[in-house]
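Data availability (excerpt). The following record was deposited with the supplementary files.
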Amino acid sequence: MHADNCRIDPAVLARAKELGWDAFFPFLTDGHIQEFESSATPAERTQLDEWFEVGEVFNARPARHIISTSLFWKNVNVLSPDLPEPTLELLENAKRLGLASRYDPWTHYVLPLVRGAEKLARTWPEVADPREILELFDGWTHERAVLAVVDGDGAAELFAGEGAHVLRPEADAPVSAKQLLHALVNTGAAQIMVLPNGYVAAEELVAGCTAAIGWGIDVSPVPAGSMVQGLAALAVHDAERQAVDDGYTMARAAAGARHGSVRVATEEALTWAGTCKPGDGLAIAGDEVLIVGDDISSAAAGLIDLLLAAGGELVTVLTGAGVDDSVGEALQRHVHSEHLGAELVTYHTGHRGDALLIGVE
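Predicted structure:
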């Protein structure tokens, strides 16, 4: 991988200006193949089979063209020790680990190939179809991954700490199918559970997952409409189970987490729960305002009471950007005094929009 340690003689560089790229990079034409087929000896054919024997074929079908790319994971100097068995983690962090001195192979070599395949298919549709490209990811990892769409530094740390890959929306812009597809590819996993957490529109989620399936990635979206539902689903994720069992269990956990949010009113308005004024706390569930409180603490306390009316043992509160720690402390006291059988946990996720996200399991 230390190719940048090699130096090319200036005379060779000067000569290179007079030659085409094919003078340096080997390539085969139909003429080369026909010549070999007509003149190769049995020993040469046997040697060719030993060198370039096909190990496995995916999506076999008649084709006029073959596009092949090889990536070498080895030191330039033959006397250097062998590099460790390649993994996605090593390819992503090769420079930091001292296995490469210029570029990380995954970012600099692999992903450009993957992302360029779609453009290749558009330019030469008779040559390439991204749905028929060899399943690249099978060579990196067979592990099942979870991709969570989250907002806020605290949320990213929370979900990543539970083993999920994280995609964060850009400021004031929804997550697009293209961004979702890139995040799915970047996990390097053959099977992925997706937690949209309310940050991906349905049409973008379907489009992004469908595109990833076309690449040979097995994608299962989990119907999590809030980060609190996503946490509930992530808590029961088990990569050792069959994918369909894991997906069903996560979906059931997400659906079983009753949830709502609290935001600060910015103007005077008439809601189903009465009139609100700027600064009031609005407790929302199912897109309707259920409680108007003097502040977000009182509104949140009322929302927790409603969510726990149907039962529950665990209350999860995610506090957004600018929310003081005293809010979580006030809700802790409320649950302790009014709901003795319930436990409340608070995480400062720093998300934008609603001040609080609340879930009950």
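Summary of structural features: The CA atoms of residues 305 and 339 lie 8 Å apart.
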